[in-house]
Predict the structure.
Amino acid sequence: CSCSSSTDFDVLIFTQRLPQTVCYAWKENFSSNTCSPTDEEWTVHGIWPTQYHKIAPSYCNESLVFNLTELATIKDKLEKKWISVENGTTHCSFWEHEWSKHGTCSAVLPQLNTQMKYFEKGLELLEKYDMKNILGQVNILPGNNYTVQEILKGVGTVLGKNCQVDCFSSKKQNVTYLFEIRICFDKSLNFIDCDGIFDFPTNCPSTANIIYPKTLLDQHHDV
Ligand SMILES: *[C@@H]1O[C@H](CO)[C@@H](O)[C@H](O)[C@H]1NC(C)=O
Ligand SMILES: *[C@@H]1O[C@H](CO)[C@@H](O)[C@H](O)[C@H]1NC(C)=O
Ligand SMILES: *[C@@H]1O[C@H](CO)[C@@H](O)[C@H](O)[C@H]1NC(C)=O
Ligand SMILES: *[C@@H]1O[C@H](CO)[C@@H](O)[C@H](O)[C@H]1NC(C)=O
Ligand SMILES: *[C@@H]1O[C@H](CO)[C@@H](O)[C@H](O)[C@H]1NC(C)=O
Ligand SMILES: *[C@@H]1O[C@H](CO)[C@@H](O)[C@H](O)[C@H]1NC(C)=O
């Protein structure tokens, strides 16, 4: 539960993540952790309403209880595109987390005021802004290494707006993986620059190469 006094927010961050990198991070925590195999696709992490320069608000309305039954018609699609790869966790617990923490805050917007609208919007944004496609247009491809500047510039070239890139630095492997790409929207869901959001522009190393991992079964980088 958060003690933030205000549930106001300035922007909505739409975050996509690479299941492969989620898995590397998960495995690094405990050697017994395993992951479910996945395709080489970007998936939804969430839509996060946020104030500039802060990670807030969260858990805005506890009366908006997550109810999986309401998502029955899109459950199959969520199970492909909004996934939890960590073995031992469920997709449903991940969805519940995203809804309770973030969805209950964005629910003040008419476009996002039901669970169905929140999760459908996530799927819609993934389809429209799929990073495999966007990065592919500037020849940034899974299985290769790039600097964060190349990735930021590549997304900017295709979309015309600044995004945010996040990385996972593996201490065990002494390498950094591309983890998430975040794009931003105003409260009317217009696409905007991500300038001013927390951690901008990135937690990635500024000059070292970042691995854009190919698949979970990429043994070369697997641990
Ligand atoms: C790893 O463990 C730390 C500390 O318990 C936790 O903060 C972090 O979220 C975990 N990361 C993953 C990927 O599970
Ligand atoms: C998930 O964990 C269970 C129990 O720990 C194990 O039997 C199973 O093989 C694991 N699945 C994968 C894909 O590693
Ligand atoms: C929480 O959600 C309920 C149910 O939709 C609504 O009646 C109430 O006004 C909301 N509370 C806040 C603080 O937004
Ligand atoms: C969950 O949603 C379904 C379908 O809208 C509804 O019938 C059911 O009463 C809801 N359950 C709870 C606990 O609110
Ligand atoms: C990417 O970097 C890793 C770690 O430094 C290295 O093992 C790998 O060969 C590099 N791959 C490419 C395609 O340059
Ligand atoms: C980690 O990698 C960097 C760059 O490839 C290298 O300079 C450094 O010595 C490595 N550190 C360890 C502990 O292997």
Q: What stands out?
A: Residues 2-222 form a domain with the Ribonuclease Rh; Chain A fold (CATH 3.90.730.10). Residues 218-223 have pLDDT under 50 and may be disordered.
